[in-house]
Design a protein that fits this description.
Shape: rod-shaped
Number of helices: 0
Strand order of the largest sheet: 7-14-13-10-11
Helix content: under 10%
Largest sheet: 5 strands, mixed
Radius of gyration: 35 Å
Order of helices and strands: EEEEEEEEEEEEEE
Strand content: over 45%
Distance between the termini: 126 Å
Number of strands: 14
Length: 171
C-alpha cells in the first residue's frame, strides 16, 4: 500500500492510512508519496513518487442579455407621467451542464435589479439606459453581456386650432 506524507507501512501492520484513491481529498498541487516495505527479517525498501493534482476543468458560462431596443413612452394625456416598464429577457449557457448558475441584472450605476434571467424594470424619462446580465458558475467563473435600451419621449402631436370659417356679421 501507498501512504501519504512519508508514513511507513510495515509488513501486515498498517501504521498509516492507505491511499485508495477515494478516501484522499487533495486540492491542486504536487504531492510526494512514499512506499516503504519491511519484510519479517527486517530488510526494507523505499520508493517515492510525485503526484500532480490539477485543478478541475471548468468552462466559463456565457451570458446573453438579448438585443438592444428602442421603446417609446405611451401617450397618456398627462405630461407629468413618463414612466415605462421594460422586460429584460436574458439567456445563459454553460458547457458544464451540471453547474447551477446564478444570474444578476444591473443597471449602469451598478444597482442590482434582478437575480433571474427575466427581469422587469420600471424607468422614468426618455434616455439611453444600459443593463448588464452577469452569469456566474459555482467555481466563480463569470461572464457579462450588456445591452442598451433607448427610451423615446412620449409622443405629442401639436394641437391644431380651428375657429371655423370667417364670418361677417352686421349690427
Amino acid at each position: 500500500s501507498w501512504c501519504k506524507n512519508e508514513e511507513t507501512l510495515v509488513y501486515e501492520d498498517l501504521i498509516c492510512i492507505p491511499l485508495d484513491g477515494t478516501s484522499d481529498s487533495q486540492v491542486e498541487g504536487v504531492y510526494e508519496y512514499t512506499l516503504t516495505v519491511i519484510d519479517p527479517y527486517g530488510a526494507d525498501s523505499t520508493d517515492n513518487i510525485l503526484v500532480t493534482v490539477e485543478a478541475e476543468p471548468n468552462d466559463t458560462p456565457v451570458s446573453d442579455a438579448g438585443e438592444g431596443a428602442t421603446v417609446t413612452i405611451a401617450h397618456d394625456g398627462d405630461p407629468e407621467t413618463d414612466d415605462i416598464a421594460i422586460e429584460l429577457l436574458g439567456t445563459a449557457t454553460d458547457a458544464d451542464t451540471i453547474d447551477v448558475l446564478t444570474y444578476l441584472w444591473q443597471n449602469s450605476d451598478g444597482v442590482d435589479l434582478c437575480t433571474k434571467l427575466d427581469c422587469s424594470v420600471l424607468e422614468e424619462g426618455a434616455g439611453s439606459y444600459t443593463y448588464t446580465l452577469t452569469t456566474t458558475d459555482p467555481y466563480g467563473a463569470s461572464h457579462s453581456h450588456s445591452i442598451i435600451v433607448t427610451i423615446d419621449a412620449e409622443p405629442n402631436a401639436i394641437p391644431v386650432s380651428d375657429a371655423g370659417a370667417d364670418t361677417l356679421y352686421t349690427i
